[in-house]
Amino acid sequence: MSIEALVENPPLQVTSLFSSEEFDRSVMQTYGRFPLALERGEGCRVWDTQGREYLDFVAGIATCTLGHAHPAMVAAVTEQIQKLHHVSNLYYIPVQGELAKFLIDRSCADKVFFCNSGAEANEGAIKLARKYAHTVLGIKEPVILTAHASFHGRTLATITATGQPKYQKNFDPLMPGFEYVPYNDIQAIEEAIDRLDNPERQVAAILLEALQGEGGVNPGDIAYFQRIREICNAKGILLILDEVQVGMGRTGKWWGYENLGIEPDIFTSAKGLGGGIPIGATLCKKFCDVFQPGDHASTFGGNPFACAVALKVCQTLERENLLSNVQQRGEQLRAGLKAIVQKYPNLFTQVRGWGLINGMELQPDISLTSIDLVKACMAEGLLLVPAGPKVLRFVPPLIVTAAEIDRGLAVLERAIAS
Fold it and tell me: Quick one: which of 214, 278, 363, 396 has the most CB atoms within 10 Å?
């Protein structure tokens, strides 16, 4: 497939009976879709409806932890769907308890609430923080500080929490109770807390990503987060970390916060937790678990099917020592990307990231964009995803091999040369 064909976005035969034009007539246009229809996958590879093979370094945007059609997931899906796929949370769900204990045993959390997505997990964290502020801190109008260039979801509360106006346009009036500060800027945090320090309207929580994913793959500064933890301890402010993209082993550790040497009071997970099966989780320490029956709920959250698959994903991560693989393959990928940056200094500025979430930044004053490179790589057989207009993001499955990293780097070089 030529780059020109990708750029022109011509009508595509999605299946033998269904074209992209028919698809667009039926499905809401909430995505700027690439002209590519995928129908099957195995490991780190996917195939389109025309039989073309691609190396998948998108992984459903950091979601397909074990890649595609992993035997452990296939077995878990098959076994659970034949046994019990859904019941209400009005009853005890044993496998939900098993999954919660697995996560608690490998984190700083004491309690877990299960839902269906990262946005829902963050929504739960916001509700938990607000109730804590009202019932424990006695704040009439609690404020949650979030960062510029952050991304926390697409619900009305989470796009308000998201510090990017492009996601908020035309959805006003937005939810009250949020203020924004620059990321990795401790002075801005301290000034905001001081400015909002009055008897009725105060900062109740700080919601941050350990590493900003959608905002350009920007890792958190260790000193910044450690100082925030000190401030939160001193003032009784809750520290909430959005681990939706960086959690579940993507950084080479179970959780992104482990790279920062701190513990949050509340954190969220989704994406890689179910390896592609929808599930999310809000996790917290015991002292801020103020939810009572009726305060929060989810019809599908934590059902037997989703929890059984997520538990198998977690167990496979541990059994196959995939955190070690993430660390090794991440170092290999960053070394290769840095070599390309040195080779093309007129195109790129730097590489940054942790484990298997990495960004390659383009020079700001050139016309080339991350979308241009995504399309060029797609034409060569490599799937990547942008993280803003000037950052190319690499988030392959955590099972990626050394040979696949080398292949991906070679394809990237071919695309750049084209």
Answer: 396
Query: Which CATH number is correct for 71-319, 1.20.1250.20, 3.30.470.30, 3.40.640.10, 3.40.920.10?
Result: 3.40.640.10
pTM recorded for the entire structure: 0.94
271 is catalytic: yes
Please indicate whether residue 372 is annotated as part of the active site.
Answer: no
Confidence of residue 297 (pLDDT cuts 50, 70, 90): very high
∠ CA 273-328-74 to the nearest 5 degrees? Answer: 35
Contacting residues for 403 by C-beta, under 8 A, at least 6 apart: none
Helices (H) and strands (E) in the chain, counts: 14, 19
Q: Select 3-57+321-417's CATH number: 3.90.226.10, 3.40.50.150, 3.90.1150.10, 1.10.510.10.
A: 3.90.1150.10
Q: How confident is the model at residue 16 (pLDDT cuts 50, 70, 90)?
A: low
Catalytic option among 56, 114, 225, 242 = 242
**Residue 305 is a catalytic residue:** no
Q: Helices marked H in 182-236 — which ranges?
A: 186-195, 222-235
